[in-house]
Design brief:
CATH topology: Trna Endonuclease, Chain: A, domain 1
CATH class: Alpha Beta
Order of helices and strands: HEEEHEE
Number of strands: 5
Largest sheet: 5 strands, mixed
Strand content: 35-45%
Structural class: alpha+beta
CATH architecture: 3-Layer(aba) Sandwich
Number of domains: 1
Distance between the termini: 39 Å
């Protein structure tokens, strides 16, 4: 079994392949801003889709979506604001926040509009 980082990267790669099958264009991966990180950022038609990838080995403590707490959501929104400030060509686009859970069986639980920016 690999490290937690390796497991997380593998989960992100699995989600990335699924997004590309949807013909989404990846414009950022592991974008870091002070206070937060964006796992994956895509352009889907004219929408900016921010994807939080959550690996879960089991369902104890709830699924992947349950692991994205209010604090985590605020960090993602903050990182998105930094991303838009650094990439103003995308600032006019509608934004959607998705959470994708990946489990041990490599199944994806893709939740569109998992939360909204406040």
């Amino acid at each position: 079994m690999g490290s937690t980082l390796d497991t997380g990267r593998a989960a992100e790669q699995r989600v990335d392949r699924a997004a590309r099958r949807r013909r989404w264009k990846r414009i950022a991966r592991n974008y870091n801003a002070r206070g937060g990180e964006l796992d994956l950022v895509y352009l889907a038609d004219e929408m900016l889709v921010i994807v939080e990838v959550r690996y879960r080995s089991g369902q104890s403590y709830g699924g992947a979506a349950a692991s994205v707490t209010g604090v985590k959501q605020r960090r993602i929104v903050l990182a998105t604001r930094h991303f838009l400030a650094e990439n103003p060509s995308h600032a006019h686009r509608p934004i959607r926040f998705d959470v994708v859970g990946v489990d041990d069986s490599d199944q994806l639980d893709w939740i569109e509009n998992a939360f909204y920016a406040e």
